[in-house]
Amino acid sequence: MAAKLLETSNIKKYFGGLKVLQDVNISLDYGELLCILGPNGAGKTTFFNVISGTFKPTGGKVVFEGKNIAGLPIHKYARMGIMRKFQVPSIFDDLSVRENLAVAMIANRNSAPSNDRIMEVIDIIGLKTFIDTEAGNLAHGQKQWLEIGLAIITDPKLLLLDEPTAGMTADETAKTASLINSLRGQYAIIVIEHDMHFVRALNSYTIILHKGTNFREGSFSQIESDPEVKEIYMGRK
Amino acid sequence: MSKKINRREALKTIGAAVAISATSFGVPTLLKAADTIKIGFMAPLTGFGALAAPYIQRPFELAVEQINAQGGAGGRKLEFVTEDTQSSTKGTIEKTRMLIGRNKVDVLMGLIYSMERKAALTVSIPNNKLLVYPTFYEGDECNRNLICTGQIPNQSIDKFVPWLMQNVGKTVYILGSDYLWPRTCTEHIEKAVKASGGKIVGVEYFPFGTYDFAPALLKVKDVNPDMVWTMVVGSDTSTVIKQYRSFNLKPQLVSNAVDEMWATFMPKEDLTGIISDQSYFMTRNSSANSVFVKAYQDKFGVENGLIPALAEAMYCGTWLYAKAVAKAGSTDNEKVVKAISQIQFDAPQGPVSIMACNNHMRTNSLIGKTREDGLFDILADQGMTDPNIPNCSL
Amino acid sequence: MKWNPIIFRFKLPPTLKQLVDERIWLVAFIGLAGLLLAYPLWADGYSLNLVRDMLIFGIVALSLDWLWGKGGMLSFGHAAFFGIGAYSMAITSINLDWGFSSLLGLFASVAIPGIIALLIGYFLIFAGVRGAYFVIVTLAIGIVSQQAAISWVSVTGGDSGLLGIPPLGFTLGDHRFQLDNSLSLYYVVLTVALLSLLFLWQLSRGLYGNLLKGIENNEKRAQSLGHNTSLHLLIVMISSAMLAGLAGGLYASCTGFVAPDLLSLMLSTEIFVWVAVGGRGTLLGPFIGAFIIMRLQQVVSSISTGLWPLVIGAIFIIIVFVFPDGILPFIRKFVVRFKLLFEKSGVKHGR
């Protein structure tokens, strides 16, 4: 069997006595889209921090393209092709949209940078009229898209999107969903969310994370109809 | 310091600064009028030397005023530019360069510390400018372009030691700051003490900033010499003397560094009774001195009227230069240097002159004992002593 | 890390604002360079030496601006690198009796600060020391190096420093080639100043400048994009220290002395003030700041020998109030506003 793109086995992360993650297992193929859903405090962001190198796991393995990568420095993760979008927009405020993308592009050692590629990405993220705008002056939704742009311009193998619709209007959320759908197949993508409606729009394989473990997984329609999942969400919301 | 800063002066300074910096960049200095003599005066006006600086600035200004009142030097009035060395090598070099290069002065005067003197000489010697330096120091300079008017070690020691051997005792314990001047003096003291049949029973040097002299003072107590000779300088002086007093040590304190200035920065009762050798004490009894002290205190007020040997030496230096220019009929370096060893000045310390072979001044060797008011009772007025710099023949 | 020349080769199409900025910078640069190149035509030897020293301090200010304005790391002990460069030059060329010792000294004045920056920078930057902590640690480095210069008397000459440093030159056979006249020294220093200024400007106007600005904005983002940000910052710090050291070496051989005030906290503060007054991140501004402040200092300290530190302080406060971003950005803003005004009125007349 060919190696998967990403496999995690029994990921644990403890902060002192606080066991945030216990035995999280996922497996992802090239080009596959995966949603991780869970209420606030389920450990979604911590899990992202582990697979993007910000935290070293307390236990378990993160295997990317057949190699255990837990504990490498952050910039090495990026160079292997793991690119992350943070929950709060994280971009270079003083640089223009174009410069932001250029700085991201030169981080990629595998292909030569070109102005055409920058324009292509600007097109994809829909910021054509804001090319020379300083990123700090963009609207909230536009910042989120720019950050997705920063991720995809490096030609990653795996895109990690941490609550890409946080703080967005309904309109912007819909636009973001179609943006992600358009990227489907080109990159493996993991989206973490707590918003059911957005995940419904993506309609992909979904894992429910609850109290730091895989609670349920399956297609979105299976998950949606699960009474226990409903309870978790109803109980909380 | 008693100098008050008034608002008008501050504003005037800012205004002038802006105006001058806007206009004077690179504009050649106007040629000086040929009938004046331009003196570049330097002192550590800011930084650690700021407290001592007035003691050369005031006598210098007094001398210039007196010389000009008498019609100047050889008919030419003196004018001067004062610059701040900032008590640093960098400041001294920059200001010396400026005085020579921009102000085109005829002669340089002032400076207190050896560091300043050495720094200024690196600029003044290549530019062939005369420097008149007032401070007592280790006595190793031998240059035609440098006139020194302070005591060098042999002048404060050669006559002082025999007197001490006769009047105080035979055994000496030396305490000094760890640098060149105390070390050079110690060599002289050792020689002189041996020649008078006395004995050095201990020598100790301390790094600058020492705050605990107890270990050394305990040793002194053990050895119990006839006298303790201190050459601890700077702010450490008050530390060592205070601790000496608090140990209630019996040996007579003697020094060749203590002068009237010290009473301004430490308790007078701690100073009382120290025996010191200087080229000048302001209590010296002579008509030249009473005229000098009166003129000084009339000009600067009694509250600024303290005159240590350093101040008197600056006064001598300024006068000697003026007289030399008058004799030479020129400010040309060579001519002035030749003339300066042929004249005499009736100074407050006595009749002084410059020795031709090393350009240092023959100074008096006065022995004084500190009184309760910080001034000195003069115990002996030993007369002029030649400065002796081995292997120097200019 | 692989050498990645793409950063230096790849160009983005400039925006209008950048074009205006670059034009202002170039005009200012050419104007200043022209003035300085022609200055010896009417200056006397003393003024020439004075401007030469100012240029040397301008280079130090430039090196701090490279670190602080471009790299985003404020060093409050930058005089340490300058002073170590100066002492390296002095100690090498005084103690080594060899035809090329002053050239070796100049090499040491670049290399030794570089190595020290490498060691310090490695432990600081890779440990994630940034911002105020970096300022404090560099401040401490400045104090330590000054203490070393004062107390290591046998090597550094202690408080009075070292005097009599030979001028730059070398001996070949029986001939000694030596830079000891004001004019040639002036042009050597001016050349170094202009070249380093142009080089750093060229380096930072492209993508590399964007990357450094990006790191300053959001280092975590740059890291997670795959940039080894610590390494980039370390390189900036080393090159800044080397440039400051080179200035130190030039200063020592031009003026012939070194003293502990060359690595004092006072000088570090002054360097900081020059950069702040001239305009942080403008590269050219620090030169202008250094010129203005030093000139004022000289003039004020001659007019009022006792008052000058106060007056300088007052002038500095006024400058900070009038030009909070520094002089060069103020001029830039003024030019841009003037241009806008001009264009607006032009449109009106056209209709």
Shape of chain C: globular
Main sheet record of chain C? 2 strands, antiparallel
Helix content of chain B: 25-40%
- The share of residues in extended strands of chain B comes to 15-25%
Number of strands of chain B: 14
Any overview of this molecule?
The complex is a heterotrimer of chains A (237), B (394) and C (351). By secondary structure, chain A is of the alpha/beta class. Chain A is built from nine helices and ten strands. Chain A has helices at 44-51, 74-80, 97-105, 115-125, 140-152, 170-183, 196-202, 220-224, 227-236; strands at residues 6-15, 18-28, 33-37, 59-64, 67-68, 82-85, 158-162, 188-193, 205-210, 213-219. In chain A, helix 4 packs across helix 5 (140-152). The relative contact order of chain A is 0.19. In chain B, strands 7-6-8-9-10-13-14 form a seven-stranded mixed beta sheet, sandwiched between helices. In chain B, strands 2-1-3-4-5 form a five-stranded parallel beta sheet, with helices on both faces. In chain B, strand 8, helix 9 (236-246) and strand 9 (252-255) form a beta-alpha-beta unit. The longest helix of chain B is centred in the C-terminal third of the chain and has 20 residues, at 309-328. Chain C is mainly alpha-helical and 351 residues long. Chain C has one domain (13-37, 48-350): ABC transporter involved in vitamin B12 uptake, BtuC. Chain C is built from 15 helices and four strands. Chain A binds chain C through residues 52, 74-75, 77-79, 83-84, 86, 90-96, 98-100, 102-104, 106-109, 112-113, 115, 118, 132, 150, 154, and chain C through 2, 4, 6-7, 10, 12-13, 15-17, 207, 210-211, 213-214, 216-218, 220-229.
